């Protein structure tokens, strides 16, 4: 059951000006990228590659992964993690420490950019590469070269705040001229409202469990994150009705995630079931598998005009 009041629904409908927007242009009251997602929602699908990886020989959060995945999947969304170094620079790193994914050691927040750059990235299959962790600026440039959208996770290091990290990331996005090809990922309503106000020209991923979760937000700016655990087609239909695109994740811990469960029988047609139920963005650890099932829908999304 979808919980929402008549007042909330009326407000959302009145502000969801982009729900039927044509291809191209800027949706009324929303970021330039909003019209693109409106078009994708109408029969297309977007694939979000977790940490940008599409093959095991790619390091996560690397230029190699960004370029390979962006070239393989038209209009790919690349989920990336940016953290601040000791000297206030933004580098791509999922963990607070360097240990798991690089030859370096220690917390990124305790190291300078020069120290981070001395490390070398390890591929997802464990092999060592010659690449250093990229800066956010380098990653945004790489995503732009392959026509991908960068989805930037706002998870601060211990002792930091989402707003402070968001402020630094938004500043770099603007300096890189990447506002029209970026999504900012938030995890609660307060952060979503704060970040949306800080960057009204950028799309915001906001966790949504019912329509009331959209209160105080502009639907044209929002991509609704609906989790990884439970398929919720009634919620997905309700979100679509107010012009908000639905995201759902099949990613997670290896062996437990839906990506692996879908692949267990050699048939990953379940991705099509998600699309049919109303999911516009599928966030996955196996983006090429999703593309193998929904190639026509990815191609349909690629016909949608997108600001560069």
Q: Could you characterize what this model shows?
A:
- With 308 residues, the chain is α/β, with parallel strands linked by helices.
- Helix content is 34%, strand content 14%.
- It has 12 helices and 9 strands.
- α3 (63-72) runs parallel beside α5 and α6 (162-175) runs parallel beside α7.
- It starts with 5 loop residues before the first helix and ends in a 6-residue tail after the last helix.
Percent strand? 5-15%
SS element count, helices = 12
Distance between the termini: 39 Å
Low-confidence stretches: 1-28
- Main structural class: alpha/beta
Number of strands: 9
- Main sheet strand line-up: 1-2-4-5-6-7-8-9
What is the 3D form?
A: globular
Which value, in Å, is the CA radius of gyration?
Answer: 19 Å
What is the ordering of alpha helices and beta strands?
HHEHEEHHEHEHEEHEHHEHH
| Mean pLDDT over the residues | 91
- Helicity, in percent? 25-40%
User: How is the main sheet built?
Assistant: 8 strands, parallel, barrel
């Amino acid at each position: 059951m979808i919980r929402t009041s008549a007042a909330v629904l009326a407000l959302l409908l009145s502000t969801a000006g982009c729900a039927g927007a044509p291809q191209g242009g800027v949706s009324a009251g929303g970021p330039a990228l909003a019209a693109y997602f409106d078009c994708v929602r109408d029969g297309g699908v977007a694939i979000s590659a977790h940490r940008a990886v599409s093959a095991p020989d790619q390091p996560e959060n690397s230029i190699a992964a960004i370029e390979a995945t962006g070239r393989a999947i038209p209009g790919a969304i690349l989920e990336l993690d940016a953290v601040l170094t000791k000297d206030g620079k933004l580098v791509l790193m999922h963990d607070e420490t360097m240990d798991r994914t690089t030859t370096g050691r220690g917390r990124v927040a305790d190291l300078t950019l020069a120290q981070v750059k001395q490390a070398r990235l390890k591929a997802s299959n464990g092999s060592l590469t010659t690449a250093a962790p990229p800066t956010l600026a380098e990653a945004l440039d790489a995503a732009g070269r392959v026509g991908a959208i960068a989805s930037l996770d706002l998870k601060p290091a211990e002792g930091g705040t989402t707003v402070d990290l968001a402020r630094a990331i938004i500043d770099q996005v603007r300096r890189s001229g990447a506002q029209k090809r970026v999504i900012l990922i938030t995890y609660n309503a307060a952060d979503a409202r704060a970040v949306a106000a800080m960057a009204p020209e950028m799309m915001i991923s906001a966790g949504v469990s019912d329509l009331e979760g959209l209160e105080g937000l502009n639907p044209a700016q929002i991509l609704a994150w609906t989790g990884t655990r439970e398929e919720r087609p009634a919620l997905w239909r309700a979100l679509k009705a107010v012009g908000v695109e639905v995201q759902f994740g099949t990613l997670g811990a290896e062996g437990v995630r839906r990506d692996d469960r879908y692949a267990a029988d050699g048939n990953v047609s379940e991705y099509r079931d998600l699309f049919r139920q109303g999911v516009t963005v599928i966030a996955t650890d196996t983006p090429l598998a999703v593309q193998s099932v929904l190639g026509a829908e990815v191609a349909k999304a690629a016909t949608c005009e997108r600001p560069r």
